[in-house]
């Protein structure tokens, strides 16, 4: 029997499966004390209600790779894998917030910030240490859950082997990208453009785009050649997405994207925008205030204007177009070779257009 669930229905079912997973873990945590229960409940509050970009991408591509339609059992399997992709995403976010020292995400306290607020009557340092340690441990638990979820997936032995190899490579590359990113921020690794672009590809593209695209291919029984092409497509899409994110953080409207205006400039984040500016005559005036945590709005606005004047914004926008153009090229080759269907190509091109026009 084939499933006729709509995209909205599937999104709801993914959310319900995530909610059920956190509810089960919260119930199991009762044997280990009220604070552990509270940690799981707080994690659920922050993990649920998101856009579910990665799980939806997996399901959307799987459906387009399966023109005859998915059976009810196949939909359930896909949702299960998609849920574990989202758990992996949240695990990485938790560790990232610890590394960056962030207490806020999307204009509200993140898990660490909310745990600190609950202990507002206690000394600041112990409360912060408790909150960050809790986030690390929860991230570890969710990372383990993602691995176990892939290992327990109700798929053939061959598909399970492919999924686990994909997950292992995803975690390895994402950690490598994060490690390099820290090295860039701390001045240990030279911030040249090539290194920054490869870091973005490993840190963002691998788990946000390559993982769901390739997982869909595995579940659909696609060929290894299709997986290779989807890897290339995912890298280009992910890099375009990250470059757009960097542009929004500096030149976008904070009322629209919901991020702290100019936070990248205050943190001294090494992006492609900054790498280009370093090669221009405007850099000495930008460098004076770049990375100042007390950077005023007026000074940040001035840096933004200088980044425009030196051509950094225009250059990075051209890189976005270059990456999106590369997606179309790979798709054209894949469709000509018959490894990726036109329906799957349309799904990917739809994502390309959303990245191109994104403002949030």
* Count of DSSP-assigned helices: 16
Mean pLDDT: 94
Q: What is the string of SSEs from the N terminus onward? A: HHHHEEHHHHHHHHHHHH
Strand order of the largest sheet: 1-2
Oligomer state equals single chain
Rg measurement, Å: 21 Å
Q: What portion of the residues fall into strands of 2 or more residues?
A: under 5%
State the helical fraction. Answer: over 70%
User: What is the CATH class name of the largest domain?
Assistant: Mainly Alpha
Low-pLDDT ranges? none
Count of spatially separate domains = 2
Write a structural description:
The protein has two domains: 154 residues, Farnesyl Diphosphate Synthase, CATH 1.10.600; 205 residues, Farnesyl Diphosphate Synthase, CATH 1.10.600.10. 76% of the residues lie in helices and 1% in strands. The chain has 16 helices and two strands. The protein has a two-stranded antiparallel sheet with strand order 1-2. Strand 1 and strand 2 form a beta hairpin. Helix 3 runs antiparallel to helix 4, helix 4 runs antiparallel to helix 8 and helix 15 runs antiparallel to helix 16.
């Amino acid at each position: 029997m084939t499933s006729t669930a709509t995209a909205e229905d599937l999104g709801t079912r993914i959310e319900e499966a995530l909610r059920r997973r956190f509810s089960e873990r919260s119930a199991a945590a009762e044997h280990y004390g009220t604070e552990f229960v509270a940690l799981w409940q707080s994690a659920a509050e922050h993990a649920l209600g998101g856009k579910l970009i990665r799980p939806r991408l997996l399901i959307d591509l799987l459906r387009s790779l399966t023109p005859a339609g998915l059976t009810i059992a196949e939909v359930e399997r896909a949702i299960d894998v998609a849920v574990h992709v989202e758990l992996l995403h949240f695990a990485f976010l938790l560790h990232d917030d610890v590394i960056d020292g962030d207490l806020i995400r999307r204009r509200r306290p993140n898990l660490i910030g909310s745990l600190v607020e609950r202990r507002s009557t206690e000394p600041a340092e112990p409360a912060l240490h408790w909150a960050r340690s809790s986030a690390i441990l929860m991230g570890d638990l969710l990372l383990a859950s993602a691995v176990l979820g892939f290992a327990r997936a109700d798929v053939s032995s061959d598909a399970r082997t492919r999924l686990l190899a994909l997950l292992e490579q995803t975690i390895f590359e994402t950690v490598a990208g994060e490690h390099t990113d820290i090295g860039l921020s701390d001045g240990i690794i030279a911030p040249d453009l090539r290194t920054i672009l490869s870091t973005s590809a490993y840190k963002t593209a691998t788990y946000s785009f390559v993982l769901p695209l390739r997982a869909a291919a595995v579940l659909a029984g696609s060929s290894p050649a299709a997986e290779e092409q989807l890897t290339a497509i995912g890298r280009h899409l992910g890099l375009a997405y990250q470059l757009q994110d960097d542009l929004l953080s500096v030149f976008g409207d904070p009322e629209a994207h919901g991020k702290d205006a100019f936070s990248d400039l205050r943190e001294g984040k090494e992006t492609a925008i900054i790498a280009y500016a370093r090669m221009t005559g405007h850099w000495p005036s930008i460098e004076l205030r770049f990375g100042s945590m007390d950077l005023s709005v007026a000074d940040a606005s001035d840096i933004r204007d200088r980044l425009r004047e030196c051509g950094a914004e225009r250059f990075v926008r051209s890189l976005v177009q270059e990456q999106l153009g590369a997606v179309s090229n790979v798709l054209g080759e894949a469709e000509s070779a018959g490894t990726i269907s036109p329906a799957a190509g349309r799904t990917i091109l739809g994502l390309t257009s959303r990245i191109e026009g994104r403002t949030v």
